[in-house]
Amino acid sequence: MAPGGHAGRVSHSQLAVAVAPELRFFLHRRARAADAIAVDRDGISSLGHIVESLGVPLTEVGSLIVNGGPATPSYRPGAGDVAQVLPMPRPQKLPVPRFVLDVHLGTVARRLRVVGVDTAYPHDRGDEALIDQANAQHRALLTQDRGLLRQHRLWLGAYVRGARPDEQFADVLDRFAPPLAPWSRCTVCNALLVPAPKGDVEPLLQPGTRRTYQAFAQCPGCSQVYWRGAHAGRLEGIVESAFRAVRAARAAHPAARL
């Protein structure tokens, strides 16, 4: 299937695909300004395959409309059909708000752990292993790899928007509005932290830390020790911004609250 011209010139062998503005950045640059794209149909390809061939992963599609009525990705378009591709509603509901991130989103993974979101980050695994983990642990796979999101055996995934970590972190919070529990997870391995008596962790502390701080937590998985040190101010800023982003996402779409 090859994209044609503007929908006004749809022939009897084509269909018109109107992609919502929120999703047009996935399209080829020449197609982004068009209200609809004329696409050649072969009578075999499904609507879902056609949408993905235009560059839009189905993970980003909330609904498909054909000739004014709902359609599934498996629908085979007929001559003269007009299809609309609408974005995934936000916040997107998840069975369980937990994620696995690919190797390029390490800063986002760390920030999600800071605010207490269950976040796996297997930075040494390939695409197939990421999909296996997402499926086995029922985690949403977050990535900027469109090809990875088009793997049909992936149970759930999402494209992370933004070029910088601040933008990417904000996009994840806006899309999913997950429950937050700051300071509850290890930023190294994602395990839940437990309170640690100072006497138990003193051998792991530098002399200055032993003199200055009294309250500690420790990771039962990797033994990393945590306390509110000089870095806390910067991290508290991240936490505050996360709460603001989640509140704003839920306020914008109150019916979609988790």
**How many β-strand runs?**
13
Strand content: 15-25%
Report the end-to-end length measured between terminal Cα atoms.
39 Å
If you compute it from the alpha carbons, what radius of gyration comes out, rounded to the nearest whole angstrom? 23 Å
Give the overall silhouette. elongated
Show unreliable segments.
1-8
**What's the average pLDDT?**
93
Give me the side-by-side strand order of the main sheet: 1-3-2-6-4-5
Q: Helicity level, as a percent range?
A: 25-40%
Query: Can you count the helices?
Result: 8
Which structural class best describes the helix and strand composition? Answer: alpha/beta
The helix/strand order is: EEEHEEEEHEHEHEHEHHEEH
Largest sheet: 6 strands, mixed
Report on the architecture of this protein.
With 258 residues, this protein is α/β, with parallel strands linked by helices. The protein contains 8 helices and 13 strands. The strands form 3 sheets. A 6-stranded mixed sheet has the order 1-3-2-6-4-5, covered by helices on one side. It has a 4-stranded parallel sheet with strand order 8-7-9-10, with helices on both faces. A 3-stranded antiparallel sheet has the order 11-12-13. Helix 4 links the parallel strand 9 and strand 10. The longest helix has 21 residues.
Keywords:
single chain, 258 residues, alpha/beta, 6-stranded mixed β-sheet, 4-stranded parallel β-sheet, 8 helices, 13 strands, disordered N terminus
